[in-house]
Amino acid sequence: MNIVCLDLEGVLVPEIWIEFSKATGIPELQRTTRDEPDYDKLMKFRIDILNKNNLKLPDIQKVISEMEPLPGALDFANKLREKTQLVILSDTFEQFAKPLMFKLGWPSLFCNTINSDDSGTVTGFTLRQQNGKKEAVKAFKLMNMRIFAAGDSYNDLDMIREAHCGCLFHAPAQIQKVNPDLKCFDTYDELLTIIESFLK
Amino acid sequence: MNIVCLDLEGVLVPEIWIEFSKATGIPELQRTTRDEPDYDKLMKFRIDILNKNNLKLPDIQKVISEMEPLPGALDFANKLREKTQLVILSDTFEQFAKPLMFKLGWPSLFCNTINSDDSGTVTGFTLRQQNGKKEAVKAFKLMNMRIFAAGDSYNDLDMIREAHCGCLFHAPAQIQKVNPDLKCFDTYDELLTIIESFLK
């Protein structure tokens, strides 16, 4: 049995923090793992900014609910789910992704959890596990699945390499350059074609 | 992060072989694991009948495509998928379940595979793995998931007991009787309520 594991942000939906930064007019929230490789430190920095600006979880969800999947993503996801199983492996938080999952027809999403108190103030976050994308692929292997994986970023490389087959998608030039063994595609038609050949 | 693992047949859709037997008027196809506990032997018996009656994979899929999910199942699945992740763990075959997955909005389905030749003749089947439902729950635990599981039959008991929490659903009286430690529910409202209390 086959399964396709896809990254979420940059692949099916826009980068959530970047869009959130634009919507709120807080440029500091554009800082990503490329600027601050320590994820724990980066998230504490972000949560600190949220709290300083009195942005609570419902405010964040409201902004995210106004975002849309990338053009063509819903059609691609629908076609894919008619052919095989899809699980989205993401470093985002389930409470953030929810409005976008609704717009994508509720594909399965394995990600992390944001913590908030009764007032909606964001107090922290819980990683499902360290290196969660790669560990998920390893666990799917224990279920005897054949796995195809695709993503756009540094945190997708271990997942792609752990899978039986995979590729980069929408990856920045620098990531493509230092990973010449991984093909990179930029359209959903190309991605669907390569997955179809994997499924045969 | 939480995940709900549900059996398919008897829980969200009718028993596929029973319905198929009715639709084709072949009573031998009503034979189940309760009559023949050796699954391999049972499937060989079924495939033999399919071939004797010249029923090919597209014929089977056509009959199944006329089936409907159980009353209320789609609404229940939709409500559940807004609250948490759902993966269906089933002993059915992906090619059989497909038309019903379409009617349920393509939830994730981990199951087995039927083998057929170019003419559509069913030649055999491939189990994803032995005891696939329990093994899937064990693998989800390695992903650090909290798991709720529910099913109606003997082959669901290991899955339910391996999960952090679970129950029987639509189970025959005999199965309830010999598993007094497992609660059994018969309506989707009850099942949703017990799952909601697990998610809290």
Explain this structure.
The structure is a homodimer of 200-residue chains. The first copy, chain A, is of the alpha/beta class. Chain A is 44% helix and 20% strand. Chain A is built from nine helices and seven strands. Chain A has a seven-stranded mixed β-sheet, with helices on both faces. In chain A, strand 3 and strand 4 form a beta hairpin. The longest helix of chain A has 14 residues. The model of chain A has no long low-confidence stretch (mean pLDDT 95). At the A-B interface, helix 4, strand 2, helix 5, strand 3 and helix 6 of A face helix 4, strand 2, helix 5, strand 3 and helix 6 of B.
Give the SSE order of chain A as H and E letters: EHHHHEHEEHEHEHEH
What is the CA-atom radius of gyration of chain A, in angstroms? Answer: 17 Å
Strand order of the largest sheet of chain A: 4-3-2-1-5-6-7
Q: How many strands, which pairing sense, and closed or not: the largest β-sheet of chain A? A: 7 strands, mixed
Total beta strands of chain A: 7
Give the termini separation of chain A: 11 Å
Proportion in β-strands of chain A: 15-25%
Contiguous helical run count of chain A: 9
Low-confidence stretches of chain A: none
Write a short abstract of this structure.
The structure is a homodimer. By secondary structure, the first copy, chain A, is of the alpha/beta class. The first copy, chain A, has helices spanning about 15-25, 40-50, 55-65, 75-85, 95-105, 130-140, 155-160, 175-180, 190-200, and strands at about 1-5, 85-95, 110-115, 120-125, 145-150, 165-170, 185.
